[in-house]
Design brief:
single chain, alpha/beta, 7 helices, 7 strands, globular
Length: about 210
């Protein structure tokens, strides 16, 4: 289960900038503890939250009850529980850290919350492919990821699906335990410049034209 960190805060800031009317439909994929889902619900938005971790689902449900906020929370893999539905806003804080496993298989255990294949795009690419079909005209996708996992490629993929996409927020943060543990590997792969001592997080905003 993924506890809220700097990327959650960065995405919450992007959420606050979106001029959504009360009652707009929001999907939070990879909700974790439900922090972003609850933030959206506080604005009077109708929120559905999804996570592949049963533990995260139960934590998000408990947090929604404690906050007294109506959030529909589903267990499942990304968009699987909401096929056939559409949304005004999709929030995504997926795993995006490049991992030296190289197998291309989804990770297990706690690493499932951050490891995303040798290029960090195992889940990001799926979101780019599938999210556009769940957006209503004028709907927006807000996705947070690391600069290590190719935000420019994310923008290009979303534009190729007909969305207007751009990086709208950036923040540099000190390396956390995961990146410190694989810093040498990242430098050897050329994903991390030799002099770089911080990670850059970005928010990609993509809108489906009306």
């Amino acid at each position: 289960m993924y506890a809220p960190q700097e990327d959650t805060e960065l995405l919450a800031g992007a959420l606050s900038d979106e001029p959504l009317p009360q009652g707009a439909e929001v999907l939070d994929v990879g909700t974790g503890t439900g922090a972003l889902a609850l933030e959206a619900a506080r604005r009077g938005l109708r929120v559905t939250a999804v996570d592949v971790s049963r533990r995260a689902v139960w934590a998000a449900r408990l947090n929604a009850v404690r906050a007294g906020l109506p959030v529909r929370i589903r267990h499942g893999n990304l968009f699987d529980p909401v096929r056939g539905e559409s949304f005004d806003l999709i929030l995504a804080n997926p795993p995006y850290v490049p991992a030296p496993d190289g197998s291309g298989r989804p990770p297990h255990g706690a690493a499932r919350a951050w490891d995303a294949g040798d290029d960090g795009r195992l889940v990001v690419d799926r979101i780019c492919r599938e999210a556009p079909d769940l957006l209503r005209p004028g709907g927006v996708l807000l996705l947070v990821q690391s600069a290590l996992s190719g935000p420019d490629l994310t923008v290009r993929c979303l534009r190729s699906s007909g969305l207007k996409a751009a990086v709208t927020r950036r923040r540099r943060i000190p390396f956390g335990p995961v990146l410190r543990g694989r810093e040498r590997w990242l430098r050897e792969r050329g994903l991390l410049p030799a002099a770089e001592d911080k990670e850059e997080l970005v928010v990609v905003r993509a809108e489906l034209p009306v």
